[in-house]
């Protein structure tokens, strides 16, 4: 069967497309490999690159595993530069202008596995000897020879070597001798410039799996031929040519004829090269007659220099090729390329990729009838519904074995239309529609066998779930404008194993979530503030959770996630998890956020709180008892009652006048205390006292004396002790009996208890004293000196009330000032 180029005139989109949308980032790839080797992660590491350093930083911790000093003007290293860094595994010092590497500099870093000193000014490949070195990049320097130093014999672990210098244009026969016994996985050679001389056999003896050649061959295709013969002998399995022909080169003859006789070669990649259709014809013929299974064209410029386009007659041989990739094809002519070849050539193909080719119409039959094709990647083109399902093509039996189809980064719009068309692809399991302009424009009818769908980077919103099939096992909704997920919505997917919701605006992880089949969940880059135990309990089979880069609220809610959740389920832990709120913790890594278990767990709180509360109460009681808290309390009570009555009393007594502030009555047995403490203390403060015994008029009856004194005193102060009660009180019983009127003004009586006298312990006959003591405030004389101060203050204020109510306030203040003594006492 012959395939014609599509005979369609209308050009829907520009075909001349410079499409470098997927630049292969080699630096990141190779660096990642280094990180992997050293067991360190790319993020979370501080490096010293671009720090304008003129020397390697000193005081590096001995535990340093990773050191990047790239892009600093460090032109030389001392012999002991890395002294003490015995753990160093990864050293990167590119773009430093290094001129010489002292031979002994790495003797302190025996564990070095990755060394990148590319882009410097070394004039020789340095003679290093590191037994564990696996990755060594020394390309883009100034050396003029590829002569590998003899010390490389010791690099037994080396499997990734990058060499290249624009000044090195010849390869001598013995240059790679030192690598003869080293088993390299990958050798990079060249700096983009042509070689002037290549000695046949130079690379034939090294033990090599893959080679990347950044060398252009134009002047001398015999050199390329020799090189390929050597690589065949070295049993290389994969070759990558970068800029193999310069744009100015005119390719004649058949430079890749050797491919037919390279039985070990499986993979060939041609990158960043101009390719004419005339060359393509002879090249593809060679490929079909080779053992190659994989062919790649990356970033090529395609030019039809043959009048009939690309023509390939029927071939009559079984073909090994299984996988063809075109990634970024720049069409030199502003027209559709012409292909005329047998589809038999493709009959065994299982993988086909046309990315970045500017394709806007799928050539009828060319691709859709490939009998073995399992994966088709048409990403990054200009395809739309009408271009992919072109009306002039008939699709009776399309894509007989296709399982995976990527239409990512195209111009598709209608999800309902696509879902219907998918019914034609009877074996399709996986469809990628990410980065299109998909709209939800009507009911979707997905075929039952389709189980994986990616709709990432289309503006769809929460409604999208209603347009999906319950058969879906894998759903990718990255950046689709989803703001919430609910259990109700997810319960529609009983087979769901993988759900990707990265880069959305989901705020809450529903607690009633229950997706028993889910194995993998991505909710990174959302607005989630917390991940609860309840929500994850509904995902019993979860193996991977990606939930980094969310604005986590660091509080007790997150405590369980930080402490108890199995971190081996989180590949992005801990670097992508930081606190966002409260503001004081912004930027703090979740792994460093410490809340105590106690402050966050309710049952623990109550378990702990009970004994603590008991202990505190006990402690307070003990302190209260030890420090006579009861005494202070009583004093306070006294004062409060005093205050209540103060006003009334002061009005009552405003116009009355007395000779004495107080009449003091006491037993002569207590005269010692009265004379030494009470009288000096009160009289020293300006109180005038009528003191029983001292001021009694001799000869008068004791009761008259008492009455005289009481009547000329504002208050009557009894110093109560057991002695007083026994010897003196009977006089006062009589006195009260005679002067009921006075006794009613019980406020004028002040009792000072020198020792505790419980009212109930008094004999029944002292009925009045008992009742007075029960209703009357009294002051107890404390033995503690500090409490005595409070005592005096209280007493004075009681007596003071004669003068002015203001005094009362002063007294109150006085007492209050002393109250803190209570607490100090502990
Ligand atoms: C060495 O560093 C350069 C500059 O960053 C990078 O492009 C290159 O890929 C690195 N090589 C290796 C082998 O890591
Ligand atoms: C780097 O350091 C040099 C001197 O050490 C100074 O002159 C220069 O301005 C610095 N450059 C930057 C970008 O800081
Ligand atoms: C490689 O190994 C062989 C045998 O072990 C030995 O004879 C030869 O000298 C070695 N060559 C180099 C360059 O190490
Ligand atoms: C290099 O070779 C190994 C083994 O043949 C292979 O697994 C690997 O993918 C190759 N690497 C590249 C970059 O081709
Ligand atoms: C491709 O063909 C053009 C003429 O159409 C020629 O000028 C150019 O040198 C050729 N390039 C290669 C790489 O063969
Ligand atoms: C693509 O190839 C051209 C040469 O054909 C080169 O100049 C350009 O740098 C390449 N781009 C990438 C991304 O490799
Ligand atoms: C395609 O190639 C065959 C020979 O293999 C030839 O007969 C036919 O005319 C070609 N078709 C076009 C359109 O060039
Ligand atoms: C194809 O191969 C068969 C046998 O191998 C041979 O008979 C036939 O002539 C070949 N046809 C062509 C076009 O080479
Ligand atoms: C954490 O998960 C891993 C992988 O699923 C498992 O092997 C490991 O036993 C789990 N650890 C704990 C403590 O559950």
UniProtKB/TrEMBL annotation:
Any one GO CC term of the record: plasma membrane
Annotated InterPro entries: Cys-rich_flank_reg_C, Leu-rich_rpt, Leu-rich_rpt_typical-subtyp, LRR_dom_sf, TIR_dom, Toll-like_receptor, Toll_tir_struct_dom_sf
Protein name stated in the entry: TIR domain-containing protein
Gene3D superfamilies assigned to the protein according to its UniProt record, in alphabetical order: Ribonuclease Inhibitor (3.80.10.10), Toll/interleukin-1 receptor homology (TIR) domain (3.40.50.10140)
Location within or outside the cell: Membrane
Family the entry assigns: Belongs to the Toll-like receptor family.
Topology with respect to the bilayer: Single-pass type I membrane protein
Species this chain originates from: Oryzias latipes
GO BP term, pick one: innate immune response
Annotated signal sequence range: 1-27
Pfam families, per the entry: LRR_6, LRR_8, TIR
Gene Ontology MF term list: signaling receptor activity; transmembrane signaling receptor activity
Keywords of this entry: Glycoprotein, Immunity, Inflammatory response, Innate immunity, Leucine-rich repeat, Membrane, NAD, Receptor, Repeat, Signal, Transmembrane, Transmembrane helix
Annotated TM spans: 602-625
Residue ranges annotated for the TIR domain, each copy included: 658-799
């Amino acid at each position: 069967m012959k395939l014609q180029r599509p005979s369609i005139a209308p050009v829907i989109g520009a075909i001349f497309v410079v499409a470098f949308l997927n630049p292969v980032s080699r630096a990141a790839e190779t660096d990642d490999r280094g990180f992997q080797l050293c067991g360190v992660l790319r993020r979370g590491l501080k490096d010293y690159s671009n720090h304008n350093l003129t020397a390697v930083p000193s005081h590096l911790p001995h535990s340093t595993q990773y050191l990047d000093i790239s892009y600093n003007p460090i032109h030389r290293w001392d012999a002991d530069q890395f002294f003490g860094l015995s753990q160093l595994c990864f050293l990167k010092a590119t773009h430093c202008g290094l001129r010489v590497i002292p031979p002994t500099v790495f003797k302190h870093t025996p564990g070095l596995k990755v060394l990148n000193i590319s882009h410097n000014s070394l004039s020789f490949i340095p003679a290093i000897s590191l037994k564990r070195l696996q990755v060594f990049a020394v390309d883009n320097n100034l050396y003029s020879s590829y002569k590998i130093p003899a010390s490389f014999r010791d690099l037994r672990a080396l499997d990734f070597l990058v060499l290249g210098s624009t000044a090195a244009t010849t390869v001598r026969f013995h240059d790679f001798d030192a690598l003869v016994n080293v088993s390299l996985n990958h050798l990079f050679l060249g700096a983009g410039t042509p070689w002037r001389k290549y000695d046949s056999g130079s690379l034939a003896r090294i033990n090599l799996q893959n080679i990347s050649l950044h060398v252009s061959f134009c002047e001398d295709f015999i050199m390329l031929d020799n090189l390929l013969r050597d690589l065949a002998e070295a049993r290389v399995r994969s070759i990558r040519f970068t800029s193999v022909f310069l744009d100015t080169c005119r390719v004649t003859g058949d430079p890749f004829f050797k491919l037919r006789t390279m039985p070990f070669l499986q993979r060939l990649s041609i990158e960043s090269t101009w390719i004419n259709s005339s060359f393509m014809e002879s090249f593809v013929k060679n490929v079909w007659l080779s053992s190659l299974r994989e062919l790649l064209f990356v970033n090529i410029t395609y030019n039809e220099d043959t009048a009939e386009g690309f023509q390939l007659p029927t071939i009559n041989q079984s073909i090994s090729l299984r996988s063809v990739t075109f990634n970024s094809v720049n069409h030199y002519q502003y027209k559709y390329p012409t292909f005329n070849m047998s589809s038999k050539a493709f009959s065994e193909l299982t993988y086909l990729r046309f990315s970045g080719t500017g394709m806007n119409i799928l050539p009828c039959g060319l691709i859709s009838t490939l009998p073995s094709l399992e994966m088709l990647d048409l990403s990054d083109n200009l395809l739309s519904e009408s271009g992919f399902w072109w009306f002039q093509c008939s699709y009776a039996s399309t894509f007989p074995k296709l399982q995976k189809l990527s239409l990512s980064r195209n111009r598709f719009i209608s999800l309902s239309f696509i879902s219907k068309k998918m019914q034609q692809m009877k074996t399709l399991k996986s469809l990628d529609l990410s980065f299109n302009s998909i709209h939800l424009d009507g009911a979707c009818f997905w075929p039952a066998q389709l189980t994986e769908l990616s709709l990432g980077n289309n503006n769809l919103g929460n409604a999208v779930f209603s347009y999906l099939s319950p058969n879906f096992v894998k759903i990718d909704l990255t950046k689709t404008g989803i703001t919430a997920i609910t259990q109700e919505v997810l319960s529609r997917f009983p087979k769901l194993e993988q759900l990707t919701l990265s880069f959305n605006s989901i705020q809450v992880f529903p607690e009633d979530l229950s997706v028993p089949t889910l194995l993998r969940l991505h909710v990174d880059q959302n607005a989630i503030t917390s991940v609860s135990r309840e929500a994850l309990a509904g995902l019993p089979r979860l193996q991977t959770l990606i939930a980094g880069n969310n604005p986590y609220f660091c509080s007790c809610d997150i405590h369980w996630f930080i402490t108890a959740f199995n971190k081996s389920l989180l590949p992005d832990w801990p670097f992508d998890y930081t606190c966002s709120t409260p503001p004081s913790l912004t930027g703090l890594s979740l792994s460093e956020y410490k809340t105590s278990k106690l402050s966050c767990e309710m049952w623990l709180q109550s378990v702990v709180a009970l004994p603590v509360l008991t202990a505190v109460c006990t402690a307070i009681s003990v302190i209260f008892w030890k420090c006579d808290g009861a005494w202070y309390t009583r004093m306070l009570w006294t004062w409060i009652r005093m205050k209540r009555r103060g006003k009334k009393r002061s009005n009552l007594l405003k116009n009355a006048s007395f000779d004495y502030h107080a009449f003091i009555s006491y037993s002569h047995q207590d005269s010692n205390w009265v004379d030494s403490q009470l009288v000096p203390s009160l009289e020293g403060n300006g109180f005038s006292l009528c003191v029983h015994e001292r001021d009694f008029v001799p000869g008068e009856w004791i009761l008259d004396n008492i009455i005289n004194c009481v009547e000329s005193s504002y208050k009557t102060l009894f110093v109560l002790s057991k002695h007083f009660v026994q010897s003196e009180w009977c006089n006062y019983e009589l006195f009260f009996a005679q002067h009921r009127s006075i006794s009613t003004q019980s406020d004028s009586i002040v009792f000072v208890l020198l020792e505790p006298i419980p009212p109930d312990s008094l004999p029944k006959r002292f009925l009045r004293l008992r009742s007075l003591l029960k209703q009357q405030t009294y002051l107890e004389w404390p033995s503690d000196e500090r409490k005595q101060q409070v005592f005096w203050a209280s007493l004075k204020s009681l007596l003071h009330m004669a003068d002015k109510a203001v005094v009362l306030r002063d007294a109150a203040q006085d007492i209050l000032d002393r109250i803190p003594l209570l607490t100090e006492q502990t």
